[in-house]
Amino acid sequence: MGPDVPLLNDYKQEFFWKRFPQTVLGGPRLKLGYCAPPYVYVHQLVLFLTPWLLGGIGTALYQLRVLDDTWAGVVSGMLMLGAGATLQGLAQCMARRTGVVAAQVLHVLFVVLPVLWALGMLSPLDALLLWAMEQTLVHGLGGSAMSTNIRLLVMFLSSTCVAICTFFIPSSLGIVLFTVATGYLLSQDLSQLLVLVKGGTSTLGLGWWGLPLSLLLLLGALTEAGLLHQLYPNQTLGNQTLSVNSIENWGSSVVPLIPQGVIGLLLIALFLITRLLRELQGACVLGGAVLNPLYPKRVMTAQAFRRKTQGLRVAGIIRRMLLNLVSPLAMIAFLSVDESLAKLHTASLAIGFTRAFRVVWQNSEAGLLQMVLVVIIRLAGGHRAVHWHELGTTVQLILISLIINRVSQFVYKLNFALTVLITSWTENKQRRQSAGTLLALNAALCPLLLAVVVLSALLSAPLLPLFTLPVFLVGFPRPLRSWPGTPGTACPCPDSVYYQQLCKRLASAIRPALANGTFGSCSPGTHYLGRFQGRLLWISVLERGYGYCTVNIKGLELQETSCHTVEARRVDEVFEGAFDHVERPGQCFRLLNPHWGNALTPCSVLPVMVYSDAQNVLTGIIDSPDHLRQLNSDFLKTLVWILLRYCVQDLTCGTHRTKGQSVQTSGRKSQSSQHTVHLEPGPAVVKVGIDSQVRPDSSSSSHLRGQDSSSLSSLTDWSDEDDLFGPMPVRRPIKMMVRTEEKQKELGLGVSLPGSVEIHSLYESMALSSLPTLRPLGMGLGLGLPIVDKGKDNIPTLTSTTVPCNSQPLNFTSPHSELFSLPTDWRTAPLPFPKIQVLQPCFPEAWFFFCLSQLVVESFGEGDFEQVMQGLREDRALLELYTQVVLSCCVALGADTQVFNPNLLFRLYCGDGPWTEGLEWLRTNKELHQLTLRAFRYSVKLLVDQASLGPVESLEELYTTLQDYHDNWFIGLVTDCGWQDSVVQEKPFLFSLGHDLTMGTYTSRVLSLQENLVQVGVLNEEGVRGQWANLSWELLYATNDDEERYSIQAHPVMLRNLTVQAADPPLGYPIYSSPLIHLRCL
């Protein structure tokens, strides 16, 4: 899209220019709507113009010569006086309740309310209350911004109660002990304690071990505070105020240095050490302008990264101990001997000490900086400023906290404003026709621009760039979360599962990075961007306390649009410039960050267990005749292995086996299906009856005959691939009376007899050359003739028209064969017997007995191995059973072709082979169909592996390969439910086939779970808040929902498109958003 994309759609412009004047003028609608009657708008207009009408009455009387100018003025004045008296009466009522000053403020506020609303500065009531509570909690009570509204309300009320209780405690020692204890407790995430009580596991925490450790630390802090306060109860600064002179005389006996002064110097040393160690952890220093020369560059593996950052990790652990253990105790010591404790019974000091002892735990790094600044001001002679000195240490800390926060916000907002201004001209695709005019206006009105930035910083409100153009407004104050709902809402899609797997792994990797200072200060409202291959992760810090941090992780779309691709490419360039450290000419500029000024500043790389995605084109593999010819043999071997493995797993999971005794099972259940086939218990010798082998789908022959398949089935089955001289298309079977070898009348498989035309129905599944000489109708069927003994009649009798090999029962000669028996329903395939007979030589008999021997060792051990295997080898019934089932599945699936073509292979892999009656039968046996489909997919994977790594050279290697597929791989389709389940369960490898319709090629996709390096950088938090504020204004107020609007177009510096995606739905559209993640950072 070009830079001159319309800011508003044509159909939205009319609506906007109707609403905006209405808002500015305070309500009158200057244009009639679509459904309201006209008198409504006339009434509003008259009401708005009432003051003008009252003043105009006197003018009209004067112009009409009714009154002279004096009396006309008197009449107008009286009318205006009446209206004014009414307003003043209301104002006086308000003044009696809130005071004169409040009434005057309300007068001014009411006048500018329409303007504030039109400019987006008027906050909704709920957002205003939440913002006020958050600001009071953070800067007045020492707490943190909270992750949800409920937590914010509970924490605000709890902290307020603590401050009130502090005011009424009479003893200074009691105040010290009470505020230290409550500050520690309120700085913890007590919701994790409830999780432990309920029997769960606290998220990435220490579990119950954290309770005694926390209690020990709290007791140590209370003991230290109480002892110091008792030893130095009446310390006053007086003539011994910490100053330059006291430092010069330190060591002499003239002016001894007070304990608070010594502790203050210790705090300065701690601050310098911890800040230096924190700067060494990240990839950039000095605000991202300079690359860290100690940070490893061009690291490709997680092992190499750990090896090269071992020294930095040691420095991070030292910083962690100093910041989390030494610094809180030092700050408690500093406050315990403060002179303000002697005059605590004032509201300001009670709030100040409550906040001071709270921030020691809640945010040790920020509290250390604030106390260091107090100490430095005293060293610089701040005690000479009487008003500053009279405030007391705790109130000074509150003021310094506000100043630091507002100054940092001003710097970030000014950086964001300059980025929008400069890139509106330097970025060609952002340069609109009005860019020059806007730049000139901002230059001419530079003081106004600075005033807007200052005002937004003072209010802690987002700086709103209108339509992301260099036209800046002050957004309405809102909490740091920017969005009202609880995190966890997303727009899910099939790709969301990859972020779901990555989320917990990434959270585990973030923990040490946050604790060591790799991510900087990491205060609530900070946003990070993670990048790995095609995945983009948005990490938001929502809450921070002593030793914990609450974050929300979002996953952005993987189907990259053009805008998404442009910004993702720039993200890669930013990370490459910092982590790959490409050499640039000139020694002076070698360490400068080439992308300084971008909204993204690189922080670190994190070793994370994540799926790497590899896609390859199978040209030359899937279309190679040599490889495809091998597929037939591999499929039969794989199916044999899977069926045997199915029996063994079924027995080991569902039955109890004793050595040397056959096992009678009551049911079988496959791993890949919930379908269960029940078997009746029986002796070791299995007699398979005709009725149990050939059961049609329905229970009545009349129902089957009602399905007229004699014409429709033949038409459906007809195709150009049919062999005119081979097997005829199979019709739907029905039950009929046939002659059996046991001299009984039984139900067998036949076909419909719609007349004498069906004389060939008994033999339609055979080749013409194998048909016997035709006899009159009924001679082969025995219709109307008495039963004749087989020995007295040489006419061959058939028990089934499809699989005559089932006519004889299976007599297992080995007592262990029953362990490997298959369900009876799997032997009833309505397939032409000649096809099965032709394929019998293809059955891998040697492979069958090899797999059988391996499974016997796993099941019975090596003690009875020879005896058991000898019996199984001699049992021909077991071999015939597997031969029949395996070849039937091969034919039913459609994998009995001599040479595959890529299209057929892909269709069979997807389970979408050409329809046949055999395939219909296979699909009715859901468990067998799943096993057969899995075997074919395994064989395709084996084909690809052999083409890439070389052929399998032995049966042992093939057995090991298939076992590896079974244990460590999911082989299927990306659209399968099992694919997503395997990702969540972290299956080591996943394999799938695909078809690129555009290129006409077949592709393979392999996901490998391994430890990879995820790149993470910090974003300009005020830039994110400003763009989200514009998104809210543009979509909710201006109702500009155009998917191609200007404010959503790619911006490589501001990362505008990615920022919009990461907003909470319905305005944003992340495909995954984690629930609140609690991280322990001690």
Automatic annotation (TrEMBL):
Residues 660-676 have a biased composition (Polar residues). It is found in: Membrane. The chain crosses the membrane at residues 39-64, 70-87, 99-122, 128-146, 153-186, 206-229, 250-274, 280-296, 317-337, 357-379, 438-459. Keywords: Membrane, Transmembrane, Transmembrane helix. The keyword Membrane applies. Residues 698-717 have a biased composition (Low complexity). It is a multi-pass membrane protein. Residues 658-678, 693-718 are annotated as: Disordered. Residues 905-1077 form the Pecanex C-terminal domain. GO terms for cellular component: membrane. Belongs to the pecanex family. This is Pecanex-like protein. It comes from Triplophysa tibetana. The lineage of its organism: Eukaryota, Metazoa, Chordata, Craniata, Vertebrata.
